[in-house]
Design a protein that fits this description.
- The structure holds two protein chains of two kinds.
- Chain A has seven helices and twelve strands.
- Chain A is of the alpha/beta class.
- In chain A, β5 and β6 form a beta hairpin.
- Chain B is of the alpha/beta class.
- Chain B folds into two domains: about 50-85 and about 115-300, UDP-N-acetylmuramoyl-L-alanine:D-glutamate ligase, CATH 3.40.1190.10; about 310-455, Mur ligase, C-terminal domain (Protein-Tyrosine Phosphatase, Chain A, Alpha-Beta Complex), CATH 3.90.190.
- Chain B has a nine-stranded mixed β-sheet with strand order 2-3-1-4-5-6-9-10-11.
- In chain B, β2, α5 (about 90-100) and β3 (about 110-115) form a beta-alpha-beta unit.
- In chain B, α4 crosses α11 (about 275-290).
- Chain B is globular, with a radius of gyration of 23 Å.
- Classes of the chains: A alpha/beta, B alpha/beta.
């Protein structure tokens, strides 16, 4: 039996960029610590019992797929909210981030309702915000950087000042290219525009999710891994972006 | 006045082409860029010098190889043509090709134009000239950051060909391509494969186009050739492969490509299923031009792989293969080819993130790198290089390559030398676009040095014998 079960929500629909890199990363880092894990792919039409999982993940998808996913999830929304409130680790990327909010407004002004889990909204603009991005964030009072790549037409605005961003933009665009904020970090949910292989290059974030998963099961998180390649890749982007 | 402006633009373009030839860089797009600045109508006017027909080849993979093979066939036949070589497939590169082929006055007639065209540049190009045919090879995720999502790219091309009298030549096996008929109403020719011995019943790769473009139901596949190319049908609305005009059958990968296209027997020195598609596309176009079977057969048989398309080198008695990789599907195919190599080998991988490579490197996580089981397949070393050496090293690490066999050497030359210095019988050099020609130059130089030193040893042996 698997020590940990991670739900990968709608991989057939939300898989625009190398999102499975995040899943591979979590699974390997658990394995290297001696734990096995099972990735359960959730397909459209499945009833989801969110309390069965140690973590949930959803990747990026285009507007069309986002709409399908909102229609799927809207029935399970209160369960999802409850689990998030209770500290279920969750990573939502790109389009999956946008659909957690109140609505997503297309460039011609049509509003597509979101799941309304958190108090923010997204407006689509013509030009896309594209490029490498570096953030300043902190965990347990320790500052660290997050490095990745963003590519989004949506501009996201956090309305509730209580919702913390994932980090402050040092270089790049972030939520909307205006307020220097990127993503959200609420309880153990992280939602972000940093798509593709976010966790492999940011082992602090990967281990944060693993630590929470273990703590919730009463297992003490220990054992640092040899992260020299991870750190090299992280620093390579920082050097490229910040000079 | 107009006339003078055209001549000035041509002269400037030709001059820039000469200069860059002397300097050795930038010869493919800068001349066109300068000429377009000086005279924006230049492409439109030079295209009017094509006396027969213009062919545009677009799609994600296989554009360069397909166009080059067709060029080989037209050359064999003795026709004149404009052709943008070496993957310079933006408007600027295409303009350069026209400038190189014309005379100083911009008057010289040429029979055909073969224009490999970047997907996002198709709408721009069709505003300048009117091809008889647009051929679409396939659609895969590629360089998403440049074009937005794949759907957007497909719609851009669809909008550009709608309400024209262009004939489309389409890959009948790709559900992302075949719907062009319904959505444009244009006359379509189809090419595709019959069942082959290399098909699979189950797909093992992450793939595009799982859902019907018409009704969004999941497509049912009877067979996969590779990725989403195969025999499909939609159980909901009946969408399926169209009737083919050009059918490839009896395919054998030996590893040469041997097959029949309708009743023409074709043998090509290229390798790999994806190249069999390129041969098929080129043969289909050649048939539409009306070229005789014997000429097509001869040209394809003599056509050697281009730079980075499984190009072979021999360095110090080691077989070295250079492969261009730019998207998950291409990389999966390259790795599948490496898997068939029984000898001990090393892998060199240069990952760059310039605009021409795609600035977003997340595609390496969509490729099935896990198929390279390092220990089982005698992979002695994996050397990671280029601007994003760290990312590709990580990808191999998370695909279970032992960390002590992963080396990081940002610099291309020292990286290639490292891969050649670890004991093995074969080395595979994988590279994204902007590192490709640098890697190729390094390999050519090392090959020359290796021949020279072999000659020297020969001489020393001879002189000691005498």
């Amino acid at each position: 039996m698997a020590d940990f079960i991670i739900a990968h929500l709608y991989p057939e629909l939300m898989n625009l960029y190398g999102d499975r890199g995040n899943i591979i990363c979590l699974q390997k880092r658990l394995e290297w610590r001696g734990y096995n894990s099972y990735i359960e792919a959730i397909s459209p039409g499945c009833q989801i019992e969110f309390n069965q999982y140690d973590m949930i993940f959803m990747g990026a998808g285009s507007d069309r797929e986002q709409k399908l996913v909102v229609n799927e999830l809207v029935h399970n929304c209160s369960d999802l909210k409850l689990e998030i409130e209770q500290g279920l680790p969750a990573l939502f990327v790109g389009g999956a981030y946008q659909l957690l909010g109140k609505y997503y407004e297309s460039s011609d002004g049509v509003q597509m309702p979101g799941l309304n889990l958190l108090d923010f909204y997204t407006q689509r603009e013509q030009n896309r915000l594209i490029g490498n991005i570096v953030l300043a964030a902190s965990l347990h009072g320790q500052p660290f950087t997050v490095a990745g790549f963003e590519n989004h037409a949506g501009r996201t605005y956090l309305e509730d000042k209580e919702i913390k961003a994932l980090g402050r933009v040092i270089s790049g665009f972030g939520n909307n290219g205006e307020d220097e904020q990127e993503g959200i970090w609420y309880k153990n949910l992280i939602a972000t525009y940093l798509h593709g292989p976010l966790l492999p290059k940011n082992p602090i974030l990967a281990d944060y999710f693993i630590e929470v998963m273990m703590n919730r099961k009463g297992i003490t998180f220990a054992s640092r891994l040899d992260d020299h390649i991870e750190n090299f890749a992280h620093e390579q982007i920082k050097k490229k972006v910040l000079g | 006045m107009k006339k003078v402006a055209l001549i000035i633009a041509i002269i400037a373009g030709k001059f820039a082409a000469c200069l860059s030839k002397m300097v050795g860089t930038g010869g493919t797009s800068i001349p066109g860029k300068i000429a377009l600045k000086l005279y924006p109508q230049i492409l439109k006017e030079l295209a009017a010098n094509i006396s027969e027909e213009i062919f545009v080849v677009t799609g994600t993979n296989g554009k360069t190889t397909t166009t080059n093979m067709l060029a080989g066939i037209l050359k064999e036949k003795g026709y004149t043509f404009v052709h943008n070589r070496a993957g310079a497939n933006m408007i600027t590169g295409i303009t350069t090709a026209f400038i190189k082929e014309t005379d100083w006055l911009g008057k010289r007639k040429t029979a055909y134009a073969l224009l490999e065209t970047d997907e996002a540049n198709v709408p721009l190009l069709l505003k300048q000239l009117h091809p008889r045919v647009v051929l679409i090879t396939n659609f895969f995720s590629d360089q998403l950051d440049r074009y937005g999502e794949l759907d957007t790219t497909i719609n851009l091309i669809k909008d550009a060909v709608r309400d024209t009298n262009i004939e489309l030549v389409l890959n009948a096996d790709d559900p992302l391509v075949t719907h062009f008929k319904n959505d444009t109403g244009l006359h379509c020719w189809y090419y595709g494969f019959d069942d082959t011995n290399y098909d699979r019943v189950l797909s093992e790769e992450g793939r595009e186009g799982r859902f019907c473009v018409f009704c969004a139901h999941e497509l049912y596949y009877q067979r996969f050739h590779y990725a989403q190319l195969g025999k499909f049908c939609c159980p909901e609305c009946g969408n399926k492969n169209p009737e083919r005009n050009f059918t490839a059958h009896s395919l054998m990968l030996t590893p040469k490509i041997e097959m029949k296209v309708n009743d023409i027997e074709i043998i090509s020195p290229y390798q790999g299923f994806y190249n069999a598609y390129n041969v098929l596309a080129a043969v289909s176009l050649a048939k539409l031009v009306g070229i005789e079977d014997a000429i097509i057969q001869k040209a394809i048989a003599n056509y050697e792989p281009d730079a980075g398309r499984m190009e072979q080198f021999e360095i110090n008695n080691r077989k070295v293969t250079l492969i261009l990789v730019k998207n998950p599907t291409g990389l999966n195919q390259a790795l599948a080819a490496i898997n068939t190599e029984p000898a001990r080998k090393t892998i060199f991988f240069a990952l760059n993130d310039n605009v021409a490579d795609g600035r977003d490197i997340s595609w390496i996580w969509d490729a099935d790198i896990e198929q390279i089981t390092v220990l089982h397949l005698n992979v002695e070393a994996i050397v990671c290089s280029g601007q994003r050496s760290g990312d590709i090293a990580l990808r191999f690490k998370y695909a279970d390559a032992p960390v002590d066999r992963i080396y990081i050497e940002d610099e291309l030359q020292s990286g290639i030398k490292k891969a050649l210095s670890v004991a093995a019988d074969a080395t595979y050099v994988l590279s994204t676009y902007t590192a490709l020609f640098i890697c190729r130059d390094i390999l050519i130089k090392l090959q020359q040095e290796s021949i020279a030193s072999a000659d020297l040893i020969d001489q020393i042996q001879k002189s000691t014998e005498s």
